[in-house]
Amino acid sequence: MNNSAENLRRIQKSLKKRYFVERCFLWSGRAAITLGLLAVLVLFVDITSKGYGAFRSTEILLDIHYDADALGIDNLHDEKQLAFADWDVLLKNALREQFPDASGRKERKQLYGLVSNGAGFDLKERLIANPKLLNTSEKVWIIADDDIDTYYKSWLSGDPYAERMSEKQIQWIEVLDEQGAIALKFSKNLFTRGDSREPEQAGIWGAVMGSLFTLAITFCLSFPIGVAAAIYLEEFAPRNRLTDFIEVNINNLAAVPSIIFGLLGLAIFINFFHVPRSAPLVGGLVLTLMTLPTIIITSRAAIKSVPPSIREAALGMGASRHQVVMHHVLPLSMPGMLTGAIIGMAQALGETAPLLMIGMVAFIVDIPQGFTDPATVLPVQIFLWADSPERAFVEKTSAAIMVLLSFLIVMNMTAVWIRKRLERRW
Amino acid sequence: MQASTLFIIIIGLSIFGYFMGQGRALALAKPLGGIRKLHSLPSYYAAQAALFCALPAIVLMGLWLIFEQPIIDSLVMSRVEAGGLIESKADYNLALNRVHNIAAGVLSREGQQSVVLAAADNLNAFRTNARLALTLLALSLSVAGLVLGLRRIRPDFRARASVEWIMSGLLMACALLAIFTTLGILLSVVFESIHFFRSVPISEFIFGTSWSPQTAIRADQVGSSGSFGAVPLFTGTLLISAVAMFVAVPVGLMSAIYLAEYASRRTRTLVKPTLEILAGIPTVVYGFFAALTVAPFIRNLGESLGLDVSSESALAAGSVMGVMIIPFISSLADDVITAVPQSMRDGSLALGATKSETIRKVVVPAALPGIVGGVLLALSRAIGETMIVVMAAGMAANLTANPLDTVTTVTVQIVTLLTGDQEFDSAKTLAAFALGLMLFVVTLCLNIVALRVVKKYREQYE
Description:
Chain B: It is a multi-pass membrane protein. The complex is a heterodimer of chains A (426) and B (462). Chain A is mainly alpha-helical and 426 residues long.
């Protein structure tokens, strides 16, 4: 009697502690979830806050006089003249007219430094598109140099970053701002150009095209091969050592570090088969091998989810095993397979490491036109820009990341949509 | 003719063959009283003709394109070698490159040795001839296949069996590609590693503690001869992975437990996909985040605490890598926790245990093998992760266990060794393949053990 009362008392005494532990455990679970969600939030906020500025770039309104004599050309159809003409002269003249107070070599140089190095070529394109402009004047928004861009954006937000600016340049910008001749405009360069050493001229279009070509190869190879392998393993393969070995291989390849596939591409595709380096072709081949396990595994799950009764019914009607697969199992499992393929493609789109091994890190200005042109891809472009010392590239990199992430989000949403809409639940 | 044009022509021929075959089968069937008198449906006869037309020609083309270049090269170079110009493998490659460039017109013909010029002309001639031969052979093979396929069309010919046999073969070939990929990986890393271990003894590589792969490019150059002791790389990799696991395992495991045992259905459907976003973000984005946001933050934090933190600290790279791995661990752990039978929980709760006691003393121990398997898989991923460490960890091979210091990893070194301008046969590039071999072997072992543990566990409760 005494003993059980003692026990009861001890249990009651321990209860408080046990409930405390229970609460601690619950809260640590909540803390873990919060930490994970916080990581997502911080990542997105950080990238967006760094990158949103890059979608607009600083431009300066200049009164450009297309002076044929200054350019040294008389015929706009003469390629040679166009190529040798000094297009920057137009900008220099316009800038000197705007700010006659710049005297001496040093100040002149600072003055010319207001606009981008490549802005002369924009004027060339303008003139070629509209030859009537020759020997006339017009007001043109000229893209500013990246240091000016960085300064102007930070100045607008009230926290000027004047590290790479001279006193004079700061004054000029203030004058321009009063005249309304400097403004932030939508950055067309970002979406139409290839890579460049000048941040204000650099764009992601070359990398996007490279990614597109690479993914096209990856999809065209990995989807049919992956589906075929999944069909074989699920529907036809006999249970033997070979099949087991194939399965072990697939499961293991799914977990092999991606950089190893890059080594394979370098040693086998480039050094042995002489596939051209840096080309979307070899990138696509490497990514195919890398995404195949993912596609095979998801396709097998899709095939498995088709109930056996369908197969039995078709077999009962006299269909051969191939007819069962081609006419019934494959169409029914197609939504699941497509979902897997899109997820695999999203993985391939974000992959960087193996492509570094096969030379897709080269500095490529031209937009790739085909599968064997040298190209780079979006994630590698991000890697290259992240490595660049210019401050303006931080903004560009974040913007490129935003574009990459939105591609990935669209792809994943499509996959979810297909799964929700088209997949049949049995 | 271009290989792609040839390919399109063969495909066109095969489509033509399909319709020919179908027409022929229908024509055969008509006098007999309809297609039910044929053994197979007309489309099978047609498919058979199309496959006969396309398959052999395409296989020939593939093999030809693979072996054309090496064979032509060796034919061309045999003359140059006979000319006594070649002394070493490097010479051979140089001469070969020169011949290629002259043949392509990139390099001017002036001032080149006559042997090399002759070889370049030879190369061009061989190439033209080889292309011509390929075109003729492939087209004739294709046409012959078509004729044979059409001639085989008889009412009693078992076309369906024939087509299905071929299809099975193709399906199996696709499945076998997995084995060939593994084989390809092994061959590429093992052969180059053997080359490497000829110049650097394997014991020095595995047990040496000094890593500085800078080798002299020219023989007479002043500079280090390079030392290839990989221990600092292994410890660096382990240090960063350990930091990552230190972040990922508690957070991942606790969120899995919370989601599986405590969270309401609605929270679960909201939180789980959000956490999985972390798994879908490309690693290059994490690398950028680690290098530009986390590393300066940790550095400033350390400075305010009076600690000396490197700007490329292992802590920054490791913690971001840990964040990347969280969803990996949480979804694997979630799977195994939900697989624990409800009856075990009920039994424990009925004995008066609180929910957390049930989880800690019953559910987690029961799910432990699966959790361990998941953690091992996550570890293998951390070891093989490249972009985060390339962007946020350093290059200096320090032998240290201090997470505030700069360390380098195996993957960083592979990338830096292979993205520079180095001749392919130098010890520097070969070292990358030796590191790749180590990486492959270690992750392979981890994966096999983990997959086996997970599989065993799954079978236990099924």
